Amino acid sequence: MELYNTLSRRLEPLPPAPGPVRMYFCGPTVYRSIHVGNARPFVISAWLRRWLAAIGYDVRLVQNITDVNDKIYQAARAQKIASVDLAATAAQAYIDDTSALGLGRPDVEPRATETIAEQIALIQDLSDRGLAYAADGDVYFRVGRYPAYGELSGQRPDQVQEQEPNTRKEDPRDFALWKGRKPDEDTWWPSPWGDGRPGWHIECSAMAEAFLGPAFEIHGGGLDLIFPHHENELAQSRGAGRDFAKIWMHNGMLEMSGADMHKSLGNDVSLHNALATWGPETLLVFFLSAHWHSSIDFSDDALKAARARAAGFRDAFAGGGASAREAPDGTWEELVAVLDDNFNTPEALALFHRWRSAGYLAPLRRALEIFGLRSLTSSRDVPGEVVALAEARQAARAKRDWAESDRLRAELAAAGWEARDTAEGFTLVPLVTAT
Length: 435
Known about the structure:
The two termini are 24 Å apart. The protein is globular. Helices cover 42% and strands 16% of the residues. The strands form five sheets. The protein has a four-stranded parallel β-sheet with strand order 4-3-9-10, with helices on both faces. The protein has a four-stranded antiparallel β-sheet with strand order 5-6-7-8. By secondary structure, it is α/β, with parallel strands linked by helices.
């Protein structure tokens, strides 16, 4: 299997199965609900993990949660609550929303605040090597002493843009490894340089090494993280003598009306709301339709098309899959060939449609389950009492009786079903536990 590597600007092979393949993907900074664009690296990493496991790899996925950060302090002050409380609440919301996608959880989900000792140790190592220096309680990385700086983002070392402007730095390009405690920050830790907390970039270098070792196969995240976050991670870790990541996967951004989806632009749609409106199957088919390295436009038309595709798969399995035919030899190998080529999910989706049309439901069921779409392969008939509960819930919603609506939704869930609201009314989908 080959994947595009941002660092080398070419396709790079994975080791042959069983591997191992160790992956680190950057998770969110938890200060509010994540938007659909934030969910894309979660989905891609989960799919890649599930696919590699299915074809015989020994795979391990680590995805962090950044729970100490300037954005968290700022949001907590605005809400007049403790930053630790805000981070804990937002982290749980992130876990709940991404779990609703039905793809399971990463093998390890470390939080930055749980690995402070490892981060301090790495900063000390960089200081001992002359790559870091203290300044008024802060510690900075010396960009000028790391000649390979800029290789990931493609910037020349003498043209790197300034990061975090202040007068304490030796060089405008230097970036913070440790930040001294400020009076309005309510979370800090002791360190050899005084009380404070880690900079953003050192967190991931330390957590990746702590849970995957000093060298691993894949590091992933959004294209917006290439600079400065991943550039700085690479410099820190290799500057400290670690090989760090071999392949750097950067997924394309979600766009709305041609602009990247960002909280700062106010054009973001929360994952929670998107799930409530469209359901996980539609969102997953939507993500399948674009190559992981490309941008994807989030629009009603795109989501309606994805919902129609999902319904087509569900219809193929309705009534026990009466139209099923035995797939010829080599059918599954077609999918292997497509995904071995830079994990090409749009081609895989096209293949799934061909299998559906041909009635090759056995490989189709297997493939859809790997991509978290097991509920589309269910042939269960909906019991009459379940339909009655869903109709009562719809009537309660029409009366804006939200308490009764929630009670009926809980009854449906206890019976193993979920009612999804649509323009035409509702559709009933069996609940399936993620694996």
